């Protein structure tokens, strides 16, 4: 059975993340979305909220793959999380060339730390290539409409501007 983890901050999850989840779920038997709970910067939504929102978004928007996708929060190194999940693959999305340098560095670091784990990149679909969680947060904070950028499960959870986790 091929098992992959898809780690990230998901603060909040966007349609770009869902696109990567959908496509990765078609490749791997089991996909675990890993929600990082201790990022260096404070998250707008706490780990429990992000996990619940992602579960709802996948169940509502990706019903065909929902049973093969799990959500787990994690703390610490991605490779340790992957090992705990018995995953041999780390999934990441690439939106543009600008993502490449940092993602390449992270993939090399992770491979040094865990040579048995490979990083697999999915090119985010063109229609979502402009999306980023930080810009979605900013737009929501100033009252902009983010309904075409994030799943309905996220709606109403943004815009307070108060970091909670
Ligand atoms: O959604 P993001 O913020 O781009 O995700 C970044 C993430 C969570 C994948 C990365 O920061 C990470 O793996 N953090 C866990 C700590 C770790 O393993 N650091 C070493 C990476 S080389």
Describe the structure.
This protein is 36% helix and 19% strand. The chain is of the alpha/beta class. It has a 5-stranded parallel beta sheet, with helices on both faces. Helix 2 links the parallel strand 2 and strand 3 (69-74). It is globular, with a radius of gyration of 15 Å. Bound molecules: 4'-phosphopantetheine. 4'-phosphopantetheine is lined by residues 7-9, 36, 77-78, 106, 109-110.
Topology:
Elements: E1 3-8, H1 15-25, E2 30-36, H2 47-61, E3 69-74, H3 78-84, E4 89-94, H4 97-113, E5 118-123, H5 133-141
The structure holds 4'-phosphopantetheine (PNS).
The site of 4'-phosphopantetheine has 9 residues, from strand 1 and helix 4.
Instruction: Count helical runs.
Output: 5
Bound molecules: 4'-phosphopantetheine
Shape: globular
Total beta strands = 5
Content-based structural category:
alpha/beta
Main β sheet profile? 5 strands, parallel
Q: Taking strands numbered 1, 2, ... along the chain, how are they ordered across the largest sheet?
A: 3-2-1-4-5
Q: State mean pLDDT (0 to 100 scale).
A: 92
Quaternary status of these chains? Answer: single chain
Strand content: 15-25%
List keywords for this structure.
165 residues; 5 helices; disordered C terminus; binds 4'-phosphopantetheine
Structure summarized in a few sentences:
The protein is of the alpha/beta class and 165 residues long. It has helices at residues 15-25, 47-61, 78-84, 97-113, 133-141, and strands at residues 3-8, 30-36, 69-74, 89-94, 118-123.
């Amino acid at each position: 059975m091929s098992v992959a983890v898809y780690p990230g901050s998901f603060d909040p999850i966007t349609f770009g993340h869902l696109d990567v989840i959908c496509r990765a779920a078609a490749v791997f038997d089991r996909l675990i979305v890993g929600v990082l709970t201790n990022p260096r910067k404070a998250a707008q939504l706490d780990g429990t909220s992000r996990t619940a929102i992602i579960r709802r978004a996948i169940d509502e928007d990706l019903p065909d793959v929902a049973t093969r996708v799990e959500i787990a929060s994690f703390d610490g190194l991605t490779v340790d999380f992957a090992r705990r999940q018995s995953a041999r693959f780390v999934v990441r999305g690439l939106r543009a060339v600008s993502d490449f340098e940092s993602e390449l560095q992270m993939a090399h670091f992770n491979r040094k730390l865990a040579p048995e784990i490979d990083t697999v990149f999915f090119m985010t679909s063109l229609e979502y290539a402009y999306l980023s969680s930080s810009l979605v947060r900013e737009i929501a904070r100033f009252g902009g409409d983010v309904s075409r950028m994030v799943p309905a499960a996220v709606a109403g959870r943004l815009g307070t501007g108060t970091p909670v986790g």
